[in-house]
Specification:
The protein is mainly alpha-helical. The chain contains 15 helices and 4 strands. The mean pLDDT is 89.
Length: 297
């Protein structure tokens, strides 16, 4: 949109110019007014929560159908991220917590005490249907529905629950030993920046890794922007993959937006509230995606 309209940014009306406008000290939330007539598209409103409208501008023409709103929310979230504040140590801590939850889930299939603890911890973190898929899959050791029931954010918050409730580990592994040696609250501020921005969900577009309601709860909401913000979790998948591939945190800011555009351009959603394909698309991130992005930079 900007490349096709050199005057686009100059047309931003951060003061309401209509005859009936009230003169306010602070301008309203920024919005994108799309038009192919007259002076064309332009922005209105102030600069607070600006990443959300920046994402909408960036997504125009890159995604079609039901996925455009998801791409807009995701690109806006990436642009609101202070990538300089994310370190290799933050990536390591996040990766350890993901692996802790995976170990817990695997061992719960043969340990009744761990199974009971997991069943309790998933209440409120997973929807009732995904929780049922997880627990029933563990009972018969059918691993496909087990891993399909949880996303990376689910696994992260399950690890947080485990660490807060269990002072002595029921099993010993390099993951549990490393996390127990980590100072209390160390890295908390850095890991918090790995989350998305949620101007509609909590009125702030700074990055926060929040424990939100299960995705299914947002299917009931009228505004599809809330569902779009709920699934802005590409950063988690990128950081998890980068930790395994040895990609430094300093490179993530350069890779994130081209990767988001590449992955979400191919996204197929049945409707605006069809969240399930989004984490599956993020989980498909692999070496070929990175190679194609690096060649285009």
């Amino acid at each position: 949109m900007i490349s096709e309209d050199p005057l686009f940014l100059r047309k931003h009306q951060y003061i309401d110019l209509s005859p009936l406008a009230h003169t306010d000290l602070f301008a309203g939330r920024p919005e994108l007014d799309t038009s192919s007539e007259g002076a064309g598209s332009y922005l209105t409103g102030g600069f607070a929560c600006f990443s959300s409208v920046a994402g909408r501008v960036a997504a125009k023409g890159k995604a079609g159908g039901n996925s455009e709103m998801v791409m807009a929310a995701q690109l806006g979230s990436l642009r609101a991220t202070d990538w300089r504040a994310i370190s290799d140590r933050d990536m390591l801590l996040f990766g350890l917590k993901i692996r802790l939850s995976r170990e817990w889930i695997e061992r719960a299939s043969t340990n009744q005490e761990l199974f009971s603890g997991l069943a309790e911890a998933t209440l409120g973190t997973l929807s009732l249907s995904r929780r049922s898929d997880l627990l029933n899959g563990l009972r018969v050791r059918d691993w496909k529905p087990v891993w399909q029931a949880v996303t990376l954010s689910d696994l992260y918050f399950l690890a947080e629950t485990y660490l807060s409730r269990s002072k002595i580990d029921a099993w010993d592994s390099p993951v549990t030993r490393a996390l127990r040696q980590w100072p209390a609250n160390a890295g908390a501020s850095g890991v918090a920046r790995l989350g998305g921005s949620h101007p509609d969900l909590n009125g702030c577009d700074h990055s926060h890794l929040l424990r939100l309601a299960p995705y299914e709860e947002y299917e009931r909401m009228l505004l599809p922007t809330k569902m779009a913000e709920r699934v802005t979790e590409l950063k988690l998948y990128l950081i998890d993959y980068a930790g395994q591939a040895g990609i430094p945190a300093a490179a993530l800011g350069t890779l994130a937006e081209p990767l988001a555009a590449e992955i979400l351009r191919k996204l197929k959603m049945a409707d605006f509230k069809d969240w399930r394909p989004v984490p599956l698309a993020f989980a498909s991130l692999d070496e070929q995606d990175l190679i194609s992005i690096l060649k285009s930079l």
